[in-house]
Amino acid sequence: MALPEHDQHRDGGKQGASESSELRRALSARHLTMIAVGGSIGTGLFVASGATIAQAGPGGALLGYVLIGVMVYFLMTSLGELAAAMPVSGSFSTYGARYVEDGFGFALGWNYWYNWAVTVAVDLVAAQLVMAYWFPDVPGVYWSALFLAITFGLNALSARGFGEAEFWFALIKVIAVLAFVAMGVMMLLGIIRGGEGGGVANWTVGDAPFAGGFAALIGVAMVVGFSFQGTELIGIAAGESKDPARNLPRAVRQVFWRILLFYVMAILVIGLLIPYTDPHLLRNDVTDVSVSPFALIFERAGLLAAASIMNAVVLTSVLSAGNSGMYAATRMLYSLARDGKAPRIFGRVARNGVPLWALLATTVVAALCFFSFIFSPKAVYIWLLNTSGMTGFIAWLGIAISHYRFRRGYVKQGRNLADLPYVSPFFPFGPIFAFVLCLVITLGQNYQAFLEHRIDWGGVAATYIGIPLFLLIWLGYRLTKGSRFVSYKDMTFPDARARSAYLDSALRGEPATVGPQTAPAPGTGGR
Known about the structure:
disordered C terminus, two-stranded antiparallel ribbon, globular, mainly alpha
């Protein structure tokens, strides 16, 4: 069996033999599960959910969360099929290069690295804003420096260090949501005070349950889409997980129930307890958690310290996102370097299995947060958020395209789906639905600007800059490397026997290699 060209690039053409002492499979099933949880619960739920209800009404917000939740679930089943078959740290960058086009994978990888490296900076600035609630007189840059050091330390320790930190961060968020939903239900049932005037009546106030029409629903879908970004991290973590063939599908299947419980139930409770016309819901600033719908409902239930408690939960969410972002960006840069698509120094791994040089490079970009020392923290927060916002959606589009072509090529070559560790049950509808809806959200990010009497080209550029940058990187690679789309007959897939031996080593906790060897299938098919 021969390694595909994608793997032969590593180590200047040497077939990855030295990899056996590098990345280590230190992430267990509970780590993977909580990484997926941590990726799907954040400030979008704790702070911005109230604004979605105010904008589209309780029914519109609920429909928006359900719609985007289904899209994300389809994307996760697509990623689960790919990652269970090929558990590599490069994840969808690797899949894009192998099953779409080499330049496409190159652009996806650099796009994703930049996205999460800048997102770490965004979260560090957000941490400044949150800490100002308790310590208004302490310069925010000190908090950014402290949290950057903590995030770097957790990721420099080991993959397990990242996994353990994310496990406990996610557990705090899960407890907060469960407590909120339970308290909300008890308020609605009259078991505890605060639910007076709530209930189904709030779904008939004004234009409820659907306010603002289709335009409001699209606007909510965009906000919700940002809230869900990060669920794809389990694909990156697959490269260092134990028994990915069993644990990844399990984590993917649980995504649907988490979305249902954490998002849909929370939005339903908020919509039943607070009328969408309540002016408090319109405020969704991360600096003012006292108007978080979670804090409002906790206060109605008599929890006097609600604002402080929610501030602590939001801080946990911010640090969790920064921790995950540092891990994802580091592993993506490492993978690009091992593929010969980034400087080779970033492919070096320390004795503890951490790609230290890639971690340092990511930390340097994350240090953009220190611009808040020169400019306003809020201005830096918004600027960094705008520059990274589009790139997460581009990664989702890449997952849908890669899975569609992977499955089509796999079947065209006469292979048996039963040989795959996990098969997405929604193909081809799942990836097609996810691609179309994700494309609508991506292109519609700032559609209001084009409806104004005078177009704000500065705002349009800030919103959409990620798209031309991605296309420019892809086109530049194609022109310089002469890459072409991979035809179905030329695709290579993991050999079932090689994968079995590879995953057996993963079960024993042995160091992670690039992935199972691949070979062309017996039988060919045209594009």
